[in-house]
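step=predict obj=ABC transporter substrate-binding protein n=410
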Amino acid sequence: MKNLRWMFAAASACVLAFLPSASSAAETKELVLWHGYRAEEKAALEKLVGQFNSAHAAEGIKVTTLAVPYDAYADKISATVPRGKGPDVFIFAQDRLGGWIEAGNTVEPIDFYLDDELKKRFIPSTLQAMVYRGTTYGLPLNYKSITLIYNKKLVPTPPKTSGELVTMAKKITDKKAGRFGLAYAYGDFYYHAALMNGFGGGVFGADGAPTMNSPANVKAADQLLKWMDKDGILPAEPTTALITSLFNEGKAGMVFSGPWFLGEIAKGVDYGLAPLPTLDEAGGKPMRPWTTVEGVYVAAPSKNKDAAFELAKFLTSTEGAKVLALEGRQSPANQAVYSDPKVAADAQLKAFRAQVDTAVPMPNVPEMSMVWGHATSAMSSILKKTATPKAALDAAQKGVAKDVASLRKK
């Protein structure tokens, strides 16, 4: 009997050795999420992460967040994620996406996880911003673009066309009094892109070749000079501080800017938002600002990719988007959230939602990094009248083409 009991005990021990223990079955899957948010954006994101953790506690999934200083954020991703030292999930704008993909082992492709229902969740252009060379690499979380911001005291009804814009702006402008109908950072290529894209221009063609000196780009620069010189509705060399000061002092009727400008507006200023006007000079086509789309990306080295993607889905859900919109003051990429009564009643959210339909996602290709320096030099030459728009853009085309060629040889 002793031998039988010993054999039974030994057999039982062998069986138990191969069964998962209670502790291993509930083993925690730690996920780390990196972001660059502060203030209300950070608070809204952390609230959602807390909700996700509560909902998935039984599965043993736990997410911790890390706010990375924005100036160092992109470089930190490039340096740590490919080595497996970074987060499981990170949030960033699409402009660096192509570079990270070409570098390798940074962003996980997610087409495997996508179905038609999930794709329909998003504003189409925001999902397109997550695509690189035909493959999807992230879920769009929110977007930012410039729009028309106007002083209701000076501009009771916002202009719908460029002709109306100039007419209104001329009535407001009094250079001796330091008052202007329109003020924006027109020397910054990011802001100028709204005119460039409106005329049908751009920085790369369908084949990926640079198109800095296209006829449409030249026309856009000519239009800017007309607003400056002939129409005289713009201040000379406007800085961010000057534009803010003019608007707050009632000396700028209209501004082209984004959500970041709203926090700078003085409390006593009654302002409104409206889509950028259409261009009479371009056959009635709308001005088309660039959109930057922040995506939620699964890090390629993550050991918990399924759980990481579940987090991305949760953050971009309609429920999550409502928190980000109303509490984080962001413009979600989720389409359905704009049908929510509270979101629909929010003038700021409504205005940027209207603008994104005509906006253009900023190119996410690595070659985009070659554009900025040459574009900035071209804008400076055009505005200082040291070169014609055609000559300045020809020089930019030559410089970008040379740099792109060098990049592609590597």
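step=describe
The radius of gyration is 26 Å.
step=end
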